[in-house]
Amino acid sequence: MFEGKSIILGVTGSISAYKAVEIASKLTQGGIEVDVVMTASATEFVTPLSFQSITHRPVHTDMFSPVTDFDIEHVALAERADVIVIAPATANTIARLALGLADDLLSCTVLSTSAPVILAPAMDVGMYQNQVTQENLERLRSRGYTVVGPAYGRLASGLEGLGRLAEVGEILAVIHQVLGRGGDLSGKRLVISAGGTQEPIDPVRYIGNYSSGKMGYALAEAARNRGAKVTLITAPTAISPPPGVEVIQVQTALQMRQAVIDKAAGADALIMAAAVADYRPQATAGQKIKRKPEKLSIELIKTPDILGEIAGDLIKVGFAAESEEVVENATRKLKEKGLDFIVANDITGADSGFSVDTNRVIIIDRIGKVDRLPLMLKSEVAQKILDKLAVRLAGGSSV
Ligand code: CTP
Q1: Atom 26 in ligand 1: which residue has the minimum CA distance?
Q2: Ligand 1 centre and the CA of 341: distance in Å?
């Protein structure tokens, strides 16, 4: 979704500089044009050729290089960039930026740009905690720089503490978030539920379902990248929630209901991608149920219909996982629950629905328009759903 965007990746002299190669690779794979600018000390850790091979673009190391595409290289780079990210950013580079020094290509570029700047510090714990570094970071933050990390862990010195470069996934998430500012969902508050609820039977057992959470998480990530403020209310899953969204962990349908009620107040839209249990054990045994009787019955009672209950001035989007009469069943749910549109899928196909990375969905809107989408990655389905949500948020009646 960020195809054609332009990023300057500044790399400075830290042992973690090799991780910047992965950042460059992931951004390039996403269709982003990456111009790498290395400080002299960075080239002691990784070679410019590593980056050049990944980005298929010249790597910039020298202010005074006569072989260049641009007349004044740092100005040209600074003007073109949508974002500048410096990862890893050493204490030295941070100090130089805080002071506004311009004694190499990277610092000149940062000083000339009006693009947002992201810093991912990496250094030894003592250097990071030093008051000077903290003050420099604070000064840069107050000028609008975004700082991601550092993370806690084992450092090159052998010490343990804060100072490791943040995880590549986290740095990429922040880059996407910054690129997404001003996207079609910016300023919108979205509540998205995901995962399958677990209804406890006794201290060791529960009633659950096969939901993996992948669809809801893909929606949360895509909405974040389009500028929305996202709250992800998630039942237990085996996957990590996307960084940069508010995450509320719940287990049961009743807990999910409470979290949705709390967060839906004032939200612009609610997307219920969670597989909420329709029934829960009437009572949860305090002790583990023993393997004694020949037969065991567990009395189940209905859980509240969360999506059906939520009222107010917000767009409501539901999912319908169906094994038969997909359009008919989904349309009934759309009406009963008062939805703006519903995303239905036939869970009988091996390539669609629970656990897999792909989905084949049918989207039905309030006025009965039926849009059958081909098999797609869940991340692509998420974009389609958000396209329709954006239309509804803009006042369109049919999506
Ligand atoms: N849903 C909900 N609360 C429930 C059950 C479902 O909010 N207690 C939401 C789901 O998150 C989904 C939509 O309602 O967005 C449809 O869920 P589904 O389980 O397909 O529908 P049900 O109303 O439970 O109908 P049935 O199980 O009979 O097919």
Answers
A1: 278
A2: 14
Angle at 307 between CA 324 and CA 227, to 5 degrees: 105
Which of 390, 333, 394 has the alpha carbon at shortest distance from 366? Answer: 333
Nearest-CA residue for atom 17 of ligand 1 = 320
Hey, how many other C-beta atoms are within 10 angstroms of the C-beta on 65? 11
**What positions carry a catalytic annotation?**
209
**How do residues 35-73 score in pLDDT, each as one tens digit?**
999 999 999 999 999 999 999 999 999 877 655 554 566
Residues of the chain with CATH 3.40.50.1950: 6-179
**Ligand 1 atom closest to Cα of residue 336:** 23
pLDDT tens figures, 85-125: 999 999 999 999 999 999 999 999 999 999 999 999 999 99
Please determine, looking at this structure, whether the domain spanning 6-179 carries the CATH number 3.40.50.1950. Answer: yes
CA dihedral 295, 301, 305, 310 (to 10 degrees): -140
pLDDT of residue 181: 87
**Index of the ligand 1 atom closest to the CA of residue 307:** 7
Looking at the structure, give the CATH architecture of the domain made up of residues 189-392: 3-Layer(aba) Sandwich (3.40)
CATH 3.40.50.10300 domain span(s) along the chain: 189-392
Residue ranges around ligand 1 (CB below 6 Å): 253, 272, 274, 276, 278, 303, 305-307, 318-321, 333
Mutation to probe ligand 1, out of 316, 333, 341, 348 (largest number of atoms < 8 A from CB): 333
For the stretch 282-316, pLDDT in tens is 999 999 999 988 899 999 999 999 999 999 899 99
**Token representation of residue 106:** 């990277």
